[in-house]
């Protein structure tokens, strides 16, 4: 089982790449979804989050409201660091358990893609990966993409400001794919990578629909 951490800045095309590789047959783990699964109402983590970011991040049932939490946690670098300090230890433990379970499965996947949205303070967990694949794109390209899908420019700029730069992402990566074109160009680059990494998953473009 080859485990790959997939990293990239906001609107780089990281999620598009992850979904394509999943369609090709890779097992995809979305760390954002795993993180949200940790937000169990009444848990120590949720209580700590409400104390740090305000009781109004919780709804009437005590569940975390992701939109409100994100607005508070990504408002500046210090707030983001507080969120990561609370969440990442539990997230790493959950990821270790998920990967261990996959390895023990008799039908273990040949390729596991772990989509890491915010690697800045999660680098200790990178020892779990056999490879780190970075999807990059210039700032203006990413900004245009984000705004085209409805994100406010100010929101994009605030989120981008607390993320790693492309240079920092590339320093973490063992492989880098620059995504400046359309999806077809990205899929071509991913197919070339798959040919080297896990050729059994190549399908001659059958998964591009």
TrEMBL record:
It catalyses: 3'-dephospho-CoA + ATP = ADP + CoA + H(+). The keyword ATP-binding applies. Keywords: ATP-binding, Coenzyme A biosynthesis, Cytoplasm, Kinase, Nucleotide-binding, Transferase. It is an enzyme of class 2 (transferase). GO terms for molecular function: ATP binding; dephospho-CoA kinase activity. It is found in: Cytoplasm. Pfam families: CoaE. The keyword RNA-binding does not apply. GO terms for biological process: coenzyme A biosynthetic process. Its EC number is 2.7.1.24. ATP binds at residues 11-16. Its main location: cytoplasm. InterPro entries: Depp_CoAkinase, P-loop_NTPase. GO terms for cellular component: cytoplasm. Pathway: Cofactor biosynthesis; coenzyme A biosynthesis; CoA from (R)-pantothenate: step 5/5. NCBIfam families: dephospho-CoA kinase (TIGR00152). Catalyzes the phosphorylation of the 3'-hydroxyl group of dephosphocoenzyme A to form coenzyme A. Belongs to the CoaE family. This is Dephospho-CoA kinase. It comes from [Collinsella] massiliensis.
């Amino acid at each position: 089982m080859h485990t790959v951490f997939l990293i990239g800045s906001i609107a780089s095309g990281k999620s598009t790449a992850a979904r394509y590789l999943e369609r090709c047959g890779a097992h995809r783990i979305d760390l954002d979804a795993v993180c949200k699964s940790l937000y169990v109402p009444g848990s120590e983590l949720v209580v700590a989050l409400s104390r740090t970011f305000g009781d109004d991040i919780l709804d009437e049932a005590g569940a975390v409201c992701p939109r409100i939490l994100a607005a508070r946690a990504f408002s500046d670098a210090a707030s983001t660091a507080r969120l990561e300090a609370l969440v990442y230890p539990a997230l790493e433990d959950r990821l270790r358990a998920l990967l261990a379970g996959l390895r023990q499965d008799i039908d273990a996947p040949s390729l596991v893609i772990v989509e890491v949205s915010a690697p800045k303070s999660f680098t200790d967990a990178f020892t779990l990966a056999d490879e780190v694949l970075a999807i990059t794109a210039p700032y203006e390209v990413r900004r245009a993409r984000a705004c085209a899908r409805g994100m406010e420019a100010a929101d994009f700029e605030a989120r981008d400001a607390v993320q790693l730069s492309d240079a920092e992402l590339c320093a973490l990566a063992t492989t880098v794919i620059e995504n400046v074109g359309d999806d077809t160009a990205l899929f071509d680059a991913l197919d070339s990578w798959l040919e080297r990494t896990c050729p059994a998953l190549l399908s001659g473009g059958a998964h591009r629909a």
